[in-house]
């Protein structure tokens, strides 16, 4: 229900603001101003997006999870969409998503809120923590770094165990695959 109200209230407010601004400065000037804010927003979005992508790539190369950069990317996408939406109210919200200091402040508070809610619910998302953490209490990227293959392919180290049922196995005893399958059954 609140989302439905958002999709009804925001367009009505946008139309009212556009009519008020258009009556003060003229219709063509208002349209030009809306187009100008969209172009400025796209230029800022491109610059901020490339910067955020570079920082995320550096963190992944260092074996760290780029959580903040992923949230910043989401904010940039929302801000870009709002800037492309005609209107001054959505432009104001969109520009606030693109201003680095303001965006960092909002993301910091949002991440604290998410961590507090996750902790209250018994889930733990920290690397290396016990309980309900990802990876069974292991740091997901620090302990198992990426490796480059001969042709530039990425490899992630891991373990697996083949589990064939005896009825499905068509290999004869003594072959290497059969021996490793039997070792897993012991």
UniProtKB/TrEMBL annotation:
<feature type="transmembrane region" description="Helical">
    <location>
        <begin position="25"/>
        <end position="45"/>
    </location>
</feature>
<dbReference type="GO" id="GO:0016020">
    <property type="term" value="C:membrane"/>
</dbReference>
<keyword id="KW-0472">Membrane</keyword>
<feature type="transmembrane region" description="Helical">
    <location>
        <begin position="66"/>
        <end position="86"/>
    </location>
</feature>
<feature type="compositionally biased region" description="Basic and acidic residues">
    <location>
        <begin position="141"/>
        <end position="164"/>
    </location>
</feature>
<feature type="region of interest" description="Disordered">
    <location>
        <begin position="134"/>
        <end position="186"/>
    </location>
</feature>
<dbReference type="Pfam" id="PF04186">
    <property type="entry name" value="FxsA"/>
</dbReference>
<keyword id="KW-0812">Transmembrane</keyword>
<dbReference type="InterPro" id="IPR007313">
    <property type="entry name" value="FxsA"/>
</dbReference>
<protein>
    <submittedName>
        <fullName>FxsA family protein</fullName>
    </submittedName>
</protein>
<keyword id="KW-1133">Transmembrane helix</keyword>
């Amino acid at each position: 229900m609140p989302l439905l109200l958002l999709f009804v209230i925001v367009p009505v407010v946008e139309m009212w603001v556009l009519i008020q601004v258009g009556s003060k400065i003229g219709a063509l000037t208002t349209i030009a101003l809306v187009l100008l804010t969209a172009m400025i927003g796209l230029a800022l979005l491109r610059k901020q997006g490339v910067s955020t992508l570079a920082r995320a790539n550096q963190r992944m190369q260092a074996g760290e999870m780029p959580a903040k950069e992923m949230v910043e990317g989401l904010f940039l996408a929302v801000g870009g969409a709002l800037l492309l939406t005609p209107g001054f109210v959505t432009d104001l919200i969109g520009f606030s998503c693109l201003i680095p200091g303001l965006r960092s402040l909002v993301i910091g508070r949002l991440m604290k809120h998410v961590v507090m809610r996750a902790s209250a619910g018994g889930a733990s998302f920290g690397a290396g923590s016990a309980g309900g953490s990802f990876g069974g209490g292991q740091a997901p990227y620090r302990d198992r770094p990426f490796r480059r293959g001969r042709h530039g392919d990425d490899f992630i180290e891991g373990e697996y165990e083949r589990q064939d049922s005896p009825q499905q196995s068509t290999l004869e005893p003594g072959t290497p695959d059969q021996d490793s399958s039997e070792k897993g059954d012991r």
